[in-house]
Design a protein that fits this description.
It contains three helices and nine strands, in the order H-H-H-E-E-E-E-E-E-E-E-E. The chain is α+β, with helices and mostly antiparallel strands. The longest helix has about 35 residues. The N and C termini lie far apart (about 40 Å). It is about 30% helix and about 20% strand. Bound molecules: zinc ion. Zinc ion (ZN) binds next to loops.
Length: about 180
Amino acid sequence: MRNRKIIAISTTVIFSLITFTACEAQDKIQLEKIETAEGKKMNTYEIEKSEKEWREQLTPEQYHITRERGTERPFTGKYNDHKDDGVYKCVACGNELFSSETKYNSGSGWPSFWAPASEKKVQEEADNSLMMERTEVMCNRCGAHLGHVFEDGPQPTGLRYCINSAALNFEPEKGKEE
Ligand SMILES: [Zn+2]
């Protein structure tokens, strides 16, 4: 029984590392695409800033994740194992993205939610690079890359929003601050 549990955990960790490696490889490809398409790209977000302004506002890690579609290493993010009540806001613009009420432990190594705070808060886009069918999740107000959504989450939605801690800023529920 114990062995089976260890095998299950090891499999999850290995899968997370594979996903992470693939994500990082993909980042480079997407980055090139963005650079070549520059000038033609349409920005339609409520909050728009130049890359220079984002760089000044965000830490290098936050910038890499949100503006360069980076992926933090699994089990390293500050909100992976975070269980307090409150809201998770976009680190770039403060948009309320996820509630602690939908957060659950997926074992993936990244903060996981089965739903966004509201469908209007996030933008989802097909991401079929590297022979993987994935759906990218972005902040609908500033376009920050947050992570991906998969269809292996718990009920009631069956979805798993796999989000980078570095893209989020947690705000505790009022009256529950430590
Ligand atoms: Zn945002």
